[in-house]
Amino acid sequence: MEIPDVDESVKQGEPAIDYVRRVSAAKLEVVRRRLGSAAVGTVVVAADTTVEIDGEILAKPVDAADARRMLTRLSGTEHRVHTGLAVAAAVPGCRSTEWEGHIEVVTARVWFRALGPDEIEAYVASGEPLDKAGAYAIQGGARGFVDRVEGDLSGVVGLPIDRLVEITAGLGTPIAR
Length: 177
Description:
The chain is α+β, with helices and mostly antiparallel strands and 177 residues long. Helices cover 31% and strands 25% of the residues. A five-stranded antiparallel beta sheet has the order 2-1-3-4-5. α2 crosses α3 (117-125). The radius of gyration is 18 Å and the shape is elongated.
């Protein structure tokens, strides 16, 4: 797995959905260009996830204080998790230099229970939230913070698997789940 070097800063006034679409597409393009031509059947996948609450994008926290702020903001509320999913495939019937692609955003709603200051502090001290959008990993130590998820849980984790399987099948390059 390659992590492309892409500017992930949010542009002034950029909505969360546009942000993850732009960043995931940029990541895909970096890898696709690096590959140049590829064997038919090659699939490149890029994704980017962010948390949005009341129109505010909660990207990765800059430090522990920012993580505390984000978790306090999410405590006892509903928010949205948007994952930009960008896929390109060197499809059958095309020359190896031709790519067919698809970009979309998968959104889930997540409800956090009310969090106490001590549990926020303990979670931040674990270090886990420091490189996670919204300062939490639903698949990690924050799973106990969640009351309910409406939508694709794998998208909240960062890669909507079922949707990826559907997209690649539609591009003629199916992958197994």
